[in-house]
């Protein structure tokens, strides 16, 4: 047999070492081809040339931030008056196959990111990454305490204690503003190696430092002070694994570990009130303790002709053994530390099989067990709230969860599919009001896309939860009403329906509509949550006015209404409450490209959201707690000009208008007689950011 070698044949020859087993058949494999007279050096695929060197874009930007409320930094990622950033998207390709990439986004701002990769494709890769995230609550909290940022808060030397905050003569003279914000900086290093055809391995290390101040409170009996808790956390995580794979299977073993450390173990604080409980003038509270978590998992997957099977088993352990804080505590503790230990085991199984051209079956089973092995100790109980008994015990909660799912997809004909399934879940808990709960859910979904330019589906489900006998646990709720049912344990019937329609009447117009309605009925509950409804719907449109102009818009609304019953006499219901929550989100965007001889691009993006909540309580007469709302407008107007073939200039103007009326944030430092508060921290501001940036294409 004679045949001519072409470029496709040569390409197959180049990979014959990898695919020789699959290609060889009856002596006609490529390894048997006669290539003695072939002049390989004459063959040159000009279209196969890989460009080497550096290409991509780099950019810098500088911005001016005009805001009188630090909360705007959550949207602008800029805390200070002036902000700068570096952006990059670079790729280097070497002749020997070496490849490196650098990606930077807003580096230097509060949400900056950097990702560097270097190595050879299909052999090894080294990764360096960095991420910064900051969240801001307020910079106008007021406190009389000194030493904020440390672990011991003291009052001024001239402080005059009193029985109520209104009678503290030096309170307002001693107030100083403080900032409640948290900043996370995360840096990582990773390495991946592809061994022979059969195996590969990887290892990733990451350290995260979290610093700042968050809101806390310290108390003496029924009197409390709002405190600025220092945050100085360090979390080290490491992931490593080895993967083995064949033609239709793979297996892998992985390890994941984390070590958390807090630079502060306790927070001390002066008593702003007249000493009452134990005549204490200085109090202490323990902070988040050091802890560790480690998990090992084994997973695998096998692909048969019509079936895919996968499995995963894992074992993990969480430990916490930091010494207890005993400063200012006048009682004997039964042990020096908790010596906490929790074992976690789990199994995940999944199967997907195509029975025929029209029918596909999928099934899964998940098992997880949380076994708390912490020793139970006997503790002296301090009477801050009304309690019964003189001894308390730490409660080692355990939970075992099993989930099973079975689903069938039936393709009725082209563009028409019916799906149905059954979901089951059971939970077994220790030291809870209900030892076992069982959930059963049936669902079905019908999808229709046979009509030209239409895609629509509707899904409905019905689920029911019940379980073992409900009874108040002496470990968790000895002071609860016997009729009380906790919503996560109570009997519940859930009905849900959702639908979506997508239509493309023309190539330039896309319409999308969706809705969802769910109702939870707690029909066996007399005290507690009795009913909850959730209704949401959304609509969006994308319209290409021309090849260069695009318009987008969307709207979303969600209404959640919850009804509950309570008792003021520890017996039958005596009052009812209704909570109504509504969230509206509106957005629109417009862009125009290729203006001024295809050098200019203009655009604007706008979003508006309004969340509103109202609570009404009826006990003989109806009392309205008043609306809580938060409204925010965000605008981004931008223009980008291609000054030269390689250099582009861009200007962004961003505006945020925010307003809320959270009553919990609008209390004077002495607004509650037995509380020293942070003062009013509601928000009502207009913030502006102008950013000028330049990018250069290499």
From TrEMBL:
* Location of this chain's protein in the cell: Cell outer membrane
Cellular component GO terms, alphabetical: cell outer membrane
Q: What is the lineage of its organism?
A: Bacteria, Pseudomonadati, Pseudomonadota, Gammaproteobacteria, Alteromonadales
Keywords, comma-separated and alphabetical: Cell outer membrane, Membrane, Signal
Give the range the annotation lists for the signal sequence: 1-24
> Which InterPro entries does the entry mention?
Beta-barrel_TonB_sf, Decahaem-assoc_OM_MtrB/PioB, Porin_dom_sf
Recorded source organism is Shewanella woodyi (strain ATCC 51908 / MS32)
The protein's matches in Pfam families, at most eight in alphabetical order, are given as:
MtrB_PioB
Q: What is the name listed in the Swiss-Prot or TrEMBL entry for this protein?
A: Outer membrane protein MtrB
Q: Where would you say this protein principally sits, based on its record?
A: membrane
């Amino acid at each position: 047999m004679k045949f001519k070698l072409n470029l496709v044949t040569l390409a197959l020859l180049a990979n014959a070492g990898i695919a020789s087993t699959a290609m060889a058949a009856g002596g006609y494999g490529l390894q048997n081809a006669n290539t003695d007279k072939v002049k390989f050096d004459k063959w040159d695929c000009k279209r196969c040339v890989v460009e080497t060197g550096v290409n991509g874009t780099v950019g810098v930007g500088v911005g001016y931030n005009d805001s009188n409320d630090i909360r705007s930094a959550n949207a602008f990622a800029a805390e200070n008056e002036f902000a700068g950033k570096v952006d990059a998207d670079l790729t280097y390709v070497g002749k020997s196959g070496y490849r490196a990439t650098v990606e930077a986004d807003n580096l230097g701002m509060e949400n900056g990111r950097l990702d560097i990769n270097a190595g050879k494709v299909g052999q090894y890769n080294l990764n360096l990454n960095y991420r910064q995230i900051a969240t801001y609550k307020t910079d106008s909290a007021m406190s009389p305490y000194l030493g904020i940022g440390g672990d011991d808060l003291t009052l001024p030397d001239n402080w005059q204690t009193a029985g109520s905050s209104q009678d503290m003569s030096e309170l307002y003279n001693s107030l100083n503003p403080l900032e409640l914000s948290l900043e996370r900086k995360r840096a990582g290093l990773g390495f991946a190696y592809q061994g022979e055809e059969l195996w590969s391995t990887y290892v990733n290390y990451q350290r995260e430092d979290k610093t700042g101040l968050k809101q806390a409170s310290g108390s003496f009996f029924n009197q409390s002070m709002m405190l600025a808790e220092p945050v100085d956390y360090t979390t080290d995580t490491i992931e490593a694994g080895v993967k083995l794979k064949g033609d239709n299977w793979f297996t892998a073993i992985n390890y994941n570990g984390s070590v958390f450390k807090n630079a502060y173990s306790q927070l001390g604080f002066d008593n702003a009130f007249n000493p009452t409980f134990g005549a204490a003038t200085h109090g202490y509270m323990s902070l988040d303790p050091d802890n560790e978590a480690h998990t090992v998992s084994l997973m695998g997957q096998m692909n048969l002709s019509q079936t895919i099977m996968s499995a995963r088993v894992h074992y993990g352990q969480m430990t916490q053994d930091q010494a207890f804080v005993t400063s200012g505590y006048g009682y004997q503790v039964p042990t020096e530390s908790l010596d906490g230990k929790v074992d976690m085991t789990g199994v995940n199984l999944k199967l997907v099989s195509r029975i025929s051209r029209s029918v596909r079956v999928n099934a899964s089973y998940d098992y997880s067990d949380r076994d708390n092995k912490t020793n139970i100790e006997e503790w002296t109980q301090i009477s801050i709230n009304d309690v019964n008994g003189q001894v308390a015990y730490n409660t080692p909660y355990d939970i075992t969860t099993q989930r099973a799912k079975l689903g069938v997809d039936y393709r009725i004909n082209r563009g028409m599919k019916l799906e149905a399934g059954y979901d089951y879940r059971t939970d077994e808990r220790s030291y809870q009001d209900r030892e076992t709960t069982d959930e059963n859910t049936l669902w079905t979904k019908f999808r229709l896309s046979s009509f030209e330019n239409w895609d629509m589906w509707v899904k409905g489900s019905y689920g029911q939860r019940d379980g073992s006998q409900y009874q108040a646990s002496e470990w968790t709720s000895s002071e609860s009403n016997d009729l009380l049912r906790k919503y996560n344990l109570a009997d519940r019937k859930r009905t849900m329906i959702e639908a979506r329609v997508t239509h493309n009447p023309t190539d330039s117009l896309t319409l999308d509509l969706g809705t969802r309605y769910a109702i939870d009925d707690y029909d066996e509950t007399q005290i507690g949550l009795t009913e909850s409804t959730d209704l949401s719907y959304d609509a969006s449109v994308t319209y290409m006015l021309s090849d260069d102009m695009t318009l987008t818009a969307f709207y979303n609304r969600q209404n959640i209404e919850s009804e509950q019953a309570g008792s003021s006499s520890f017996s039958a219901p005596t009052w009812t409450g209704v909570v109504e929550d509504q969230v509206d989100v509106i957005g629109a965007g417009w862009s125009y490209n290729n203006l001024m001889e295809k050098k200019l691009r203009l655009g604007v993006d706008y979003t508006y959201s309004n969340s509103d909540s109202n609570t009404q309580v009826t006990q003989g007469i109806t009392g309205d707690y008043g609306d809580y709302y938060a409204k925010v407008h965000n605008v981004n107007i931008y223009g980008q000009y291609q000054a030269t073939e390689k250099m582009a200039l861009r200007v962004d103007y961003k505006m945020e208008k925010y307003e809320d009326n959270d009553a919990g944030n609008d209390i004077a430092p002495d607004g509650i007689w037995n509380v020293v508060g942070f003062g009013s921290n509601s928000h009502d501001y207009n913030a502006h950011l102008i950013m000028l940036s330049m990018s250069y294409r290499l």
